[in-house]
Amino acid sequence: MAQKNLLKYILIGLLENEKKTGYDLKKLFETEIGEFWSAKHSQIYLELKRLEEQGYIASETGLFGNKIEKTYYTVTEKGRRVLNEWEETPTGELPINKDEFILKLYFIHNKNDKRIKEMLSEQYRLHASKLFHLQERMKLLFKDEISRTKNYGHFLILDLAIRREQEYIGWIKQYLY
Amino acid sequence: MAQKNLLKYILIGLLENEKKTGYDLKKLFETEIGEFWSAKHSQIYLELKRLEEQGYIASETGLFGNKIEKTYYTVTEKGRRVLNEWEETPTGELPINKDEFILKLYFIHNKNDKRIKEMLSEQYRLHASKLFHLQERMKLLFKDEISRTKNYGHFLILDLAIRREQEYIGWIKQYLY
DNA sequence: GGATCCATGTAACACGTTACATGATTGA
DNA sequence: TCAATCATGTAACGTGTTACATGGATCC
């Protein structure tokens, strides 16, 4: 997955409909996007600079209070074009989900190993908590039909994420008891 | 996930019961481990050297044919210890599965966007093919109760992987038709 | 007055991929 | 003899994290 610079498209995509600062974008990674992507502010600010140099986004400096300068970014025509090109390109190749827990489990050979129950219990807690969080997001963002139609992609992937957690929890339960 | 050097534990873990060459390990990443982890030979060879320097594994050079030298690695006591420590440490923090398709979908807002069906169709093919492959592996590796008991962790994660693909496919079908 | 958030940046490092490189062995 | 596979390595680069760094604004 590395080497494709997908952060580029995320940033352009997030700026598509509304100008935002680097800090705004950073906050989005902590909430909205955080469920399926991550990036630190250090990486975001650098990438924004690079995207501006390459002409995919443009910046304007706004004033906040009377001293702090905020840099707002907007998408250029060129940026809009590459975003669309990317969206239309078949993705191909399923990604490998590197999951440390899965890895640990792989190296446990004996069915009666005491650690299995401990590990499954921990995962149960983590996934149950994530499931709850996702369900709350679903309620908050997509309570009516209109909101679903307007951000349909987001609705779809939230639905997938919830199903996935439910399945994961089902799997754990089967082997935990 | 990065910064934890999990490759280290994979290599030690794979060498635990049997001495292997770098090439053997590379091959395992193409088959067995490939379902849930990836690594290129360039990274493997370097990591093996580092692990030997740090005393986690030891090497012996064998001859193959009459000219080629193969380097076999085995795990040391120190290596066995860190592997066990790792296995006993709670994993914590669910990983973020960075999936390019999910990302693209997020940026599609309109329910009637033609691209949704195309994207879902492509994913259907990919996941159906992966599911088939996983099911074949399951049949091959775990046909009887005894094989399950001997590599129980592997059986568990293969079962999870299959359920996950089934769920994914179910999700696609729901919105594709 | 102090904590927390807003806002932006740089530097060092770790992880992972791609490309370059070499040469022997095996089987058709 | 030619292709594929076995077998091992290095170099350059791209991506992402951690740590370092600064200073204003807001709220209690």
TrEMBL record, chains A, B:
The keyword DNA-binding applies. Residues 98-176 form the Transcription regulator PadR C-terminal domain. Keywords: DNA-binding. GO terms for molecular function: DNA binding. It holds the Pfam family Vir_act_alpha_C. Gene3D superfamilies: 6.10.140.190, Winged helix-like DNA-binding domain superfamily/Winged helix DNA-binding domain. This is DNA-binding transcriptional regulator, PadR family.
